[in-house]
């Protein structure tokens, strides 16, 4: 391929590479910073903010090495670049027309991005076209490699689109006209999107760093990405319990009653989320306790802790004039206001010090467990404009792409890790290299099917997604939503406006309680899944395409039909199978939702799959139908052959009570299986210093178990029950 | 206000102005190129393509002078700029929070743009956010001025949004929390969009030219814009007759039969549109006659002309390898293909010569009347990427913004004006300064209500919109769509895929024929309305907000209701009254559409308004209900007091037959009225040399008429009937 450089008069120094093709593949541009990981630096990469600059932890080089040898996925020289006269920098990555491209962060409708143009920008995903709360510029190819555009700028990506006039592999032209001999006016077999064999990414920046991850499988590619970005986050055990956010202006008394009501209804509770009313002022915010609502925050927080309930505080970053630190913060804020509040520039150390000192003093030091960081995503009509300026010199664009990450990393590092205490919280925007950040994303959209797709999409880009339940039109919807919630990275009910409780719909209170209890019983399995995220980069909840044996070809293809009023280009449609996902190594989750509220189809991958509840054999590489009735209103869960699932023998009211509790082991399939249970102190960062252990448990088909524990802290009790779940 | 400049290290020379506030208002930056028109040059404006560079005609300075004196609408020093570190150039125009902002081209849902962020880019309007087939960067304020950002780049505009931290006029903060004394969790009277008093426009460019037009009324602002952009277009008279596009692969025989069928059904026809099948190949195109379908194009074209029917040829610009001029064009094409066709760079003279010579030889010289230029708009997945390069050095971005205009201007100038023959055609993208271009816009969307809004929106930005009819689900819809079509800049049925005819729905064939006949009878009034567009800048079809006495406050405001699942910010909604519009000086059109298919409400502006058909007094400054039944299935038309409407005494089968035909005059109201009828040769550019005349006709309430004709060519016959339409 021919390289094509057009240098603008004013930007002669912008690009370090030149027109000589070989230059791109010399040591000057290429590095291999970790096993199976290659880095290409184009132009002045130091002039631009990279997502990896904001990663919470350093690359886990040893773990990357353990993944084994890997080879570069294509010819380096096949990568080419253009620097346009108007300052845009493009990199072209080869990609066969028949490869499937997945990823690009929190895409909520589809996870496949072949034949799409995406403008990756932090914004509400409903705007479409690549805008989303977490537009991670990372894609994974079905051929087993991943590409990460490591730049905190608006990035536009043309996936398998854009034929170049000088390319040698363009398909032949097809006449859209029918042959003259043909009667009638229907056009020929022409297609609106000709095959193209590249991904072209363009950014208006001085430099661009591209990272390429190799892998034998797509999962291995994801693992490499996560490990390079610091490893997946390991939340405190309490973060994996049940969360409930109270209405926006609840006071202390109402909060205490809410907690008591949970106990009265026998519903587990680990975290109570306070919405804006805890502050003296919101939109813009003061971050200071409203003492008429909360007369003694410390006593309240400690009382809650003594009941095993932690507090999570809502905030958005926009600071009111009434905040005590406003005057000191003012010079460190950007040129524009959001909801009339100043926008602190947390790239500035003084700004970080001001907010973290205040937060530590007023919240964390009295026992607050973490934050929900709202509205760091968009829309444009709310946030600072693209021409806003910030004291650190960071562009408005890069601030938009990273504000959510900046907040996450600042809180993680300066408020919690500094004090050797883990946190787990929520944030409404994230981006590349976020794997190690202990935050889940959420959205103001409320489509259950999209919420389920979000779980899969998040797993492809080092982020976590919470399909929070806010309310429902009826008991069936409420149950289905809470079931999905309980099989997600954060099991949360967000009733800030509805005041809904788990027992709001009486007709489903029992199965709602049952699924929350099931989540609690599965804490050993769930916690170990997160440990695998941290240690091996394996996401705890995963898109089916990462599961070996899943036939993605089962996605439904709807051929396009010409209609001048609705479809003049006869465009087809692909309905992807993203309504089921993997949880941990062994469990497949297929929630009921929307029209599929009590009957739905499930695609079983290759291998033998069993019903989680009964052990009944369900099939192998086939599509089955399941009903709520046969499952007694429980969420459909399937376990694959050769799996061992550790659970608490019974549910607990919060994660504190899980410590030391005995285990039930379930064996699915007819073979001896092994499980490696992770244990640590559940709440400090000592695990980063090796203070953890694995208990390797083996179970034979006749229920005999043996166990080997490594050195380190114990967490759960003994295995007291074994169930052979095979019928 | 304080000016804030941040200079990037690499762009020291980019901005001609400096940090001294007074500089922006000195003669260096400000010019007054025409009466009531001010120009502000920021940075290196010559480095960027301006829309006015592509205007088809020069500013009509004399006509601008005639509009009378005007004063600059605000303090020049209130305009400020920012040049950001990442190369963005922002200009901030003062704008009170209570001003209403209209315009920005073909916005199809609303014409008001207050409190919106728009990213103006040529694309399909369905993508939203400012993307549209004609994203004219021009807005009009209810305070009587207009601002035109004269740059062919993607432009982002923040309308009355974005409070600056150092602004002195920010509203006070409002606490979203309710007071602690308040029980329950409902938030306070906070609003999600605080008042802001500026329009901020930002472009990633080396320079930006801003034009400011003054006016006593919003209409006068629009007139100034149009006159500065060369005056509105004056189509040939035949362009205002009835158009019909045949199915995509019709051959000569089928076309001849179609024309005969129109005659048989007694339906007027001026233009027959041929879709892709006329070419040897389409998508990509050859631009050469498919001689198996059209064995003798010249004879066919001439035969059609002899029947008074002109041909319009579909094309898109993307050139096939099979085109005879392909090899010569190849070096003048951009780096990327569209549908595998090369994309000629028509900024290059050789490319223009190649295509216009071929088009003239093969089409225009044998009698073809014009073109439909398709697919010059988007989507991104079809057109060239933002990093494509073009031989002229024009950026991909500027090419995207102007390709439709480039084509229009090239055809207008080199194919038609050069040969002193007018044309009228269709194009799927246009942009700023397009007033003088004889093309109407259309879209693949097919919402009737949006099509009606499009007529209004177009009038605010020097463009024309065709609400073409393609098909319908039933006779009522068909009738309603064709009625709208007949009261628009181009009365066209586009049956390329459906094969629909005016008589397809037998139950409505009579009223369909009637409204097409009414269009033909109104040709004298319609043609004069276009002459007013050309001479005075008054759009022939206009948004109601340009009509004095229209109470825009009648728009429906729906207050926002908090709902955590659907509306968490309690955002309100404004339903604008854009389902009616003005036609010429006197007629208001209020089509039936969608749910309002046979009964609808109409807002009558201040003044007395009469039914067009019966002369019945309908009201003054009030909202009325009209039904299809009372109107005998005719489109609702209202005429204002003191109006004289000239019509042909009877319909004609095409515009050729209108020449020399006698006139009927209708007087509405109880006062003596005057009308100035425009006449010229209907098809050459001699009118630009003053070869036209006005016939000033006066009619008293008792029906006495007097007439004074200027020098110049005659067009219509005598006034032989006078009707006093006042009951």
TrEMBL record, chains A, B:
Region annotated Disordered, chain positions: 165-191
Key words of the record: Glycosidase, Hydrolase, Signal
Highest taxon in the source lineage: Bacteria
UniProt xrefs under InterPro entries: DUF5110, Gal_mutarotase_sf_dom, GH, Glyco_hydro_31_C, Glyco_hydro_31_TIM, Glyco_hydro_b
Boundaries of every DUF5110 domain copy: 663-703
Keyword Amino-acid biosynthesis part of the UniProt annotation: no
Residues annotated as domain Glycosyl hydrolase family 31 C-terminal: 576-645
Any one GO molecular function term: hydrolase activity, hydrolyzing O-glycosyl compounds
The Glycoside hydrolase family 31 TIM barrel domain, residue ranges: 233-528
Bias kind Basic and acidic residues: ranges: 165-176
Keyword Oxidoreductase: no
GO biological process, one term: carbohydrate metabolic process
Signal peptide: 1-16
Sequence similarity: Belongs to the glycosyl hydrolase 31 family.
Protein name: Alpha-xylosidase
């Amino acid at each position: 391929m021919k390289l094509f450089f057009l240098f603008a008069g004013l930007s002669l120094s912008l690009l370090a590479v030149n027109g000589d093709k070989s230059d791109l593949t010399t040591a000057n541009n290429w590095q291999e910073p970790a096993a199976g990981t290659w880095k290409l630096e184009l132009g002045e990469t130091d002039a631009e903010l990279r997502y990896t600059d904001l990663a919470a932890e350093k690359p886990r080089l040893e773990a990357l090495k353990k993944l084994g040898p890997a080879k570069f996925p294509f010819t380096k020289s096949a990568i080419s670049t253009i620097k346009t006269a108007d300052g845009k920098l493009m990199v072209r990555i080869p990609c066969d027309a028949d490869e499937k491209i997945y990823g690009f962060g929190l895409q909520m409708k589809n996870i496949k991005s072949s034949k799409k143009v995406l403008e990756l920008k932090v914004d509400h995903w409903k705007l479409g076209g690549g805008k989303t709360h977490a537009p991670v510029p990372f894609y994974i190819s079905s051929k087993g490699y991943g590409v990460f555009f490591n730049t905190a700028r608006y990035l536009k990506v043309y996936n398998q689109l854009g034929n170049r006039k000088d390319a040698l592999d363009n398909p032949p032209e097809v006449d859209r006209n029918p042959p003259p001999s043909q009667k009638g006016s229907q056009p020929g077999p022409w297609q609106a999107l000709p095959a193209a064999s590249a991904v072209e990414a363009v950014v208006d920046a001085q430099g661009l760093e591209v990272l390429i991850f190799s892998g034998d499988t797509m999962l291995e590619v994801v693992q490499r990405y996560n490990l390079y970005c610091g490893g997946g986050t390991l939340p405190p055990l309490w973060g994996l319990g049940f969360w409930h956010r109270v209405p926006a202006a609840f006071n202390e008394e109402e909060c205490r009653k809410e907690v008591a009501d949970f106990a009265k209804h026998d519903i587990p509770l680990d975290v109570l989320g306070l919405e804006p009313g805890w502050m003296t002022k919101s939109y813009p915010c003061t971050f200071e306790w409203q003492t008429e609502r909360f007369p003694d925050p410390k006593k309240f927080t400690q009382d809650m802790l003594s009941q095993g309930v932690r507090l999570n505080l809502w905030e958005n970053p926009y600071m009111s004039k009434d905040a005590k630190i406003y005057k000191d913060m003012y010079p460190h804020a950007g040129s524009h206001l959001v909801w009339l509040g100043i926008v602190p520039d947390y790239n500035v150390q003084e700004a970080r010090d001001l907010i973290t000192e205040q937060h530590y003093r007023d919240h964390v030091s009295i026992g607050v467990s973490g934050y929900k960081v709202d509205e760091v995503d968009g829309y444009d009509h709310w946030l600072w404009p693209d021409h806003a300026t910030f004291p650190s010199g960071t562009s408005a664009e890069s601030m938009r792409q990273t504000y959510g990450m900046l907040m996450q990393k600042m809180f993680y590092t300066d408020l919690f890790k500094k004090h050797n205490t883990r946190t787990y919280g929520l944030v409404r925007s994230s981006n590349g290299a976020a794997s190690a950040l202990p935050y889940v994303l959420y959205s103001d959209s409320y489509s259950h099917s999209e919420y389920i797709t979000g779980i899969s999409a998040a797993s492809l880009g080092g982020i976590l997604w919470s399909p929070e339940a806010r309310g429902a039109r009826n008991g069936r919807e409420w149950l289905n939503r809470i079931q999905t919630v309980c099989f997600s990275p954060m099991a949360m009910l967000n009733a800030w406006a509805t005041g809904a409780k788990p027992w709001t719909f009486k007709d489903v209170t029992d199965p709602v309680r049952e699924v929350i209890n099931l989540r609690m019983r599965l804490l050993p399995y769930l916690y170990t899944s997160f440990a695998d995220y941290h240690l091996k980069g394996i996401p705890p909840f995963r898109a089916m395409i990462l599961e070996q044996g899943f036939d993605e070809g089962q996605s439904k293809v709807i051929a396009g039909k010409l209609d001048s009023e609705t479809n003049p280009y006869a465009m087809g449609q692909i309905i992807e199978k993203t309504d089921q996902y993997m949880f941990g190594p062994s469990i497949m989750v297929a929630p009921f939702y929307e029209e599929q509220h009590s009957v739905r189809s499930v695609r079983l991958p290759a291998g033998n799959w069993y019903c989680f509840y009964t052990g009944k054999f369900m099939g192998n590489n086939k599509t089955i139908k399941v009903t709520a009735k046969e499952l007694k209103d429980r969420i459909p869960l399937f376990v694959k052959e050769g799996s061992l699932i550790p659970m608490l023998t019974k549910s607990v009211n919060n994660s504190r009570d899980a410590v030391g509790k005995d285990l039930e082991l379930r064996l699915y399939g007819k073979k001896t299986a092994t499980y490696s249970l992770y244990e640590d102190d559940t709440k400090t960062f000592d695990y980063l210093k090796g203070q953890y252990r694995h208990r390797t448990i083996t179970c034979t088909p006749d229920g005999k178990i043996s166990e080997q524990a490594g050195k380190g802290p114990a967490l759960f009790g003994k295995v007291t029950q074994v169930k052979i779940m095979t019928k």
